[in-house]
Amino acid sequence: MSNLETAPEPVSTGGTADVKATPVRELLPMKEVVLGAGTAVRRLLPSFGRRMVGAWCFLDHYGPDDIANEPGMQVPPHPHIGLQTVSWLHAGDVLHRDSLGSLATIRPGELGLMTSGRGIAHSEESPVPHRPILHGAQLWTALPDSARHKAPAFGHHTDLPVVTAPGLRATVFLGELDGAISPGEVFTPITGADVTVEAGGEARLPLEFDFEYAVLTMTGDVRIDGADAPVGRLLYLGCGRDELPVEAGSTTRFLLLGGVPFEEKLVMWWNFVGRTGAEIAAARDAWMTGDSLGVVHGYAGDRVPAPALPTVPLKARGRER
């Protein structure tokens, strides 16, 4: 999913100075954004309180929406550099096309992982026909300098590892959790897991002490380490835990996101993650003046033009604001 805002704000992020080295329970603010064809999303990263969690640098939560008589998701071709996109569904299906020629329908419980590297373009849409309910999350991870200029790639993974405990089931869609490793290629130590806890269930999830973590509740009623985690909000947890206590008042599903704090400082603007304002400006020019970032064939519509650059300089700063 793209950032389709017509006047996106520049985001300077990265570095470890603002990582919470001890456990915290911070409920971060969210922003409502409307994408193509009226799809409304809750933007949770970057937020006014925090820009990254490990390498996770972007998070939209959408639905559940009744799209039985609607076009559903319609995100025209747009470019990316310097990141990976992660498509994760609880309900519905999304048709992915990209400039590599990839064509894949992502369904609930399947990982769509696109590595932009030096540049790629893609589109996302609800297929015709499509399922009546759409509910999911779109996430980005920032690529480290060692990987951000690599050739682009796309992977569609339908067989993902699962961690189980009494009353709990966790699908590891990216990185590693409790020894279970996702088949998706990653470039920093990271965790992305979809956790289901049965009503009345209590569990303790094993964590990496040096990772920072956050939780997005997708459905249900849950307390995370004694703190309420409302549906559609991101609860930031900081570092310094070996395990995470979970108590579910009703059957609950949440995303556990974590990773080693991202040391490099970044500049994020529109659909680009770079290191300098000049690099972002060059990527914008490349998209507007040619096809060097890729061409998506088969989408019934025009590609998305890049917004105007902001008048303020784009500079890399810290992780908080």
TrEMBL record:
InterPro entries: Pirin, Pirin_C_dom, Pirin_N_dom, RmlC-like_jellyroll, RmlC_Cupin_sf
Residue ranges constituting the Pirin C-terminal domain according to the UniProt record: 193-290
UniProt entry tagged with the keyword Metal-binding: yes
Keywords: Iron, Metal-binding
GO molecular function annotation: metal ion binding
Pfam families: Pirin, Pirin_C
Cofactor (UniProt): Fe cation
Name of the protein: Pirin
Protein species of origin: Actinocorallia herbida
Lineage: Bacteria, Bacillati, Actinomycetota, Actinomycetes, Streptosporangiales
